[in-house]
């Protein structure tokens, strides 16, 4: 199976090349030239399998130049008890007959990015080796929080790689900062940048394309690569858990074989929900994909009107991992829904670059509405949802997941559709403890207390255990102390690799 670019101006490549390149040379995103389809028998046959076996089965369909041994080794190294604190890896919690939560936060950093970033390094290294590359791979990451830590955990001590993570010194939470600056591993480097996330991200983008930096790297036997969310290697592991959740519910007889479900996905960059769309195209019985947004509701407007318009106020919310105005992975959806019309996708993306908006044709708009439904939840609704889900179900959810649950309520009220719903739970409630504690304990109980005191307060109130990696974070030694200006980022990379 070859991979083609959504913009149609790159020759098709093998999956190994697609993983190594990350983004297509014409600026488009790589997609498989056709989507494999599973028969109902194939689907049922995987019911008894564990998460690793299910993952291998899905990955084999896409990673066609990997051997079965390479795939099973990658899966075993990524999804094991040393890395995930739940034996099911991605367990489904049923809180009411038609209401389930798919918990994607049992990995080392307590957010769903681990599901892909735990396995990506192994896939990437095998891809790199098979394309004859001998240089040491240097992963550069600019992060506003979750991705940086997940990438550090994924790449730590992976032979043949180094990872350098830049984060905005004043732009991440104290827990997120401590998670990164206490990172262990022989090949990891963490650098704070004086500035905001945009400064950090544009600095990293400039490094990727700076010929003098790339020349210097080549001479020292290094080569840049990227682990960002448009790499196909981030998407394909996300398809797995949609199948896995369905099979778990079927196993428990919560649904009958072939019965359709709805997935509710808290969305930012459109990666996670796109994986659910691919699962549906592959034969998973899905009725509706519900796209949940926060106040940065550019996707809700797009799904309702067919017009994507990023010219709007950007809000910093209590669900920060969804604070995004350009959802890069939407490009892959448009490619599928236009019948793989690359010139058309290319034109819309050019309009987005030049004017910040584009409008799809009526047929594509209809296709979008056929598969997706969307609404958003503001800050007050999000906090109220955390409290009511705790009161009604004795189940604690984080702010991102609460956006999903609040939007599910709106969907059910608007449509009367009570199809079994699986809400994708993207982070541990302890990771975003400030807003979660405020929702449960009230504003006064939270005022003046730091994040570690709030972890304790939340655990005391709910009887839940604080995840081990967060509990003693303030007592771990700080291993990374570099703080640089934006203009020093190039020099610091050369120093690190020197
Ligand atoms: C990244 C992230 C999201 C958004 O996922 P996308 O694939 O970007 O749509 C939602 N919740 C959490 C906790 C995340 O880290």
From TrEMBL:
This is Threonine synthase. Its cofactor is pyridoxal 5'-phosphate. The keyword S-adenosyl-L-methionine does not apply. GO terms for biological process: threonine biosynthetic process. NCBIfam families: thrC. Keywords: Lyase, Pyridoxal phosphate. The keyword Transcription regulation does not apply. Transmembrane segments: none annotated. Belongs to the threonine synthase family. Residues 3-79 form the Threonine synthase N-terminal domain.
């Amino acid at each position: 199976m070859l991979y083609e670019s959504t913009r149609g101006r790159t020759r098709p490549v093998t999956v190994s090349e697609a993983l190594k390149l990350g983004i297509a040379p014409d600026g488009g995103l790589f997609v498989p030239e056709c989507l494999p389809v599973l028969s109902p028998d194939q689907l049922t046959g995987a019911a008894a399998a564990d998460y690793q076996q299910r993952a291998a089965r899905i990955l084999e369909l896409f990673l066609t130049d990997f051997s079965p041994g390479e795939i099973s080794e990658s899966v075993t190294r990524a999804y094991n008890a040393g890395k995930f604190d739940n034996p099911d890896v991605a367990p489904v919690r049923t809180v009411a007959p038609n209401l389930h939560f798919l918990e994607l936060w049992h990995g080392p950093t307590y957010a769903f990015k681990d599901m892909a970033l735990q396995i990506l390094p192994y896939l990437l290294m095998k891809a790199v080796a098979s394309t004859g590359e001998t240089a040491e791979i240097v992963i550069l990451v600019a992060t506003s929080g979750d991705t940086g830590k997940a990438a550090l955990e994924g790449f730590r001590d992976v032979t043949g790689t180094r990872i350098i993570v830049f984060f905005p010194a004043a732009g991440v939470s104290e827990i997120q900062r401590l998670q990164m600056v206490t990172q262990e591993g022989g090949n990891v480097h963490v650098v704070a940048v004086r500035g905001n996330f945009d400064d950090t991200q544009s600095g990293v983008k400039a490094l990727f394309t700076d010929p003098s930096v790339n020349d210097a790297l080549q001479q020292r036997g290094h080569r840049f690569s990227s682990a960002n969310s448009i790499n196909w290697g981030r998407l394909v592991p996300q398809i797995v858990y949609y199948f896995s959740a369905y099979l778990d519910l079927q196993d428990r007889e919560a649904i009958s074989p072939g019965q359709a479900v709805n997935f509710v996905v808290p969305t930012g960059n459109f990666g996670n929900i796109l994986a659910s769309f691919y699962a549906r195209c592959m034969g998973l019985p899905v009725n509706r994909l519900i796209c949940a947004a926060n106040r940065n509701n550019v996707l809700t407007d797009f799904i309702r009107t067919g017009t994507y318009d990023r010219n709007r106020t950007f809000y910093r919310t209590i669900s920060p991992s969804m604070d995004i105005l350009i959802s890069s992975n939407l490009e892959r959806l448009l490619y599928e829904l236009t019948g793989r019309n690359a010139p058309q996708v290319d034109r819309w993306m050019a309009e987005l670059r030049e004017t910040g908006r584009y409008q799809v044709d009526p047929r594509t708009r209809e296709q979008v509405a056929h598969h997706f439904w969307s609404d958003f939840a503001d800050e007050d609704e999000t906090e109220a949802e955390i409290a009511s889900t705790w009161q009604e179900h004795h189940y604690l959810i984080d702010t991102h997941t609460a956006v999903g649950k609040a939007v599910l309520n709106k969907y059910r009220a608007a449509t009367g559709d009570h199809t079994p719903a699986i809400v994708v739970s993207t982070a541990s409630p302890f990771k975003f403890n400030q807003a979660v504690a405020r929702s449960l304990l009230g504003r006064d109980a939270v005022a003046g207390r730091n994040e570690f005191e709030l972890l304790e307060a939340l655990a005391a109130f709910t009887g839940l255990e604080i995840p081990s990696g967060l509990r003693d974070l303030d007592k771990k030694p700080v291993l990374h102390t570099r703080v640089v200006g934006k203009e020093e980022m190039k020099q610091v990379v050369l120093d690190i690799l020197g």
